[in-house]
Amino acid sequence: MSALGEFDLIAAYFTRPVQRAVLGVGDDCALLAPGHGMQMAISSDMLVEGRHFLSTVAPDRLGHKALAVNLSDLAACGARPVAFTLALSMPRVDEAFLAGFSRGLLALADAHGCELVGGDTTQGPLNICITVFGEVPAGQALLRSGARAGDHLYVSGTVGDARLALEAFRGTAALSGDTFERVRLAMEQPQPRVTLGLALRGVASSAIDISDGLLGDLRHVLRRSGVAAVIDADALPRSADLSAQPVALRYECGLAGGDDYELLFTAPASHAARVAQASRETGVPVTRIGRIEQGAGVRVVDHTGAEVPMTFGAFDHFKS
């Protein structure tokens, strides 16, 4: 058993000098001072072993993903990361796990200028909860409620690989070793689209990140905006690995897979050139996959315009 206690492990793995925060780890509260005219964007996400990640995941990838899913929320809001807190429960002090976990966590934090400023540790089942803080100019946050009829519907990157990896773990998809490692990386180490979110301020009319599946997350936008959507299922951007799978599996992974952490957003048709510019400047591919219409709900069609039967739904923590 490790000789490290709670405060020893915090000092060893999670205490760093702050650069942007007023006060960080070590006091009763962290202190943040957003810039003049800025609003603070705050989001929390929890990862539970056996629910959100497998016990076999590498600790550095787990540390990366724990922060990535929170940074993705900031990206969907068009907010710049500032700081985060970490609440960590674990069965015992495992210094090999802590070394890898903190390495992956803090490498991503450094890449986005996001400081660890506090949190909590306790003994219990492996459970990670991060609260992230970002800033956005007043009135410029991207929201779910801004989509309007006539807008184009876009998604960043590619979708479906994380779900394909899950199907491989479940034994319902047979993948080669190389293919499995690529899609497993997509599931375990997603890349938050922070730079794209910043570039879409003043361009996108609404945005959300894809955590529970493209269709399910799109419905949040449609309900908040009071509109409907049409998606071309064959326009979804997929990796070569997913494109090689049967059509039904391609559709299910791309439309309902979840864990992609790509940005799903709308923009007026008149902003198409600005969307393309944001994609070029950030180096993040963006694909138009549909349109916003008057009405309610979502229709999914193929490239011929025929409706695609939807026999799958979005992920729900208490139904899935």
Characterization of this structure:
This protein has 320 residues and is of the alpha+beta class. The protein has two domains: 6-137, PurM-like, N-terminal domain (60s Ribosomal Protein L30, Chain: A), CATH 3.30.1330; 152-301, PurM-like C-terminal domain (Phosphoribosyl-aminoimidazole Synthetase, Chain A, domain 2, Alpha-Beta Complex), CATH 3.90.650. It is 34% helix and 23% strand. The strands form two sheets. Strands 6-8-5-9-7-10 form a six-stranded mixed beta sheet, sandwiched between helices. It has a four-stranded mixed beta sheet with strand order 1-4-2-3. Helix 4 packs across helix 9. Mean pLDDT is 91; it is low at 315-320.
List the keywords.
320 residues; alpha+beta; 60s Ribosomal Protein L30, Chain: A; Phosphoribosyl-aminoimidazole Synthetase, Chain A, domain 2; 2 domains; six-stranded mixed beta sheet; disordered C terminus; transferase; thiamine-phosphate kinase activity; magnesium; magnesium ion binding
Quick one: how many beta strands? 10
Please tally the helical runs, counting DSSP H or I stretches of 4 or more residues: 10
Fourth-tier CATH superfamily name of the largest domain:
PurM-like C-terminal domain
End-to-end separation? 37 Å
Q: Give the percentage of residues in beta strands.
A: 15-25%
Which CATH architecture of the largest domain? Alpha-Beta Complex
Major sheet strand order: 6-8-5-9-7-10
- Estimate nothing, just give the exact number of structural domains: 2
User: Approximately how much helix is present in the residues?
Assistant: 25-40%
| Overall pLDDT score | 91
Instruction: Name the structural class.
Output: alpha+beta
What are the segments in which pLDDT stays under 50 over at least 5 consecutive residues? 315-320
Radius of gyration: 20 Å
Overall shape: it is globular
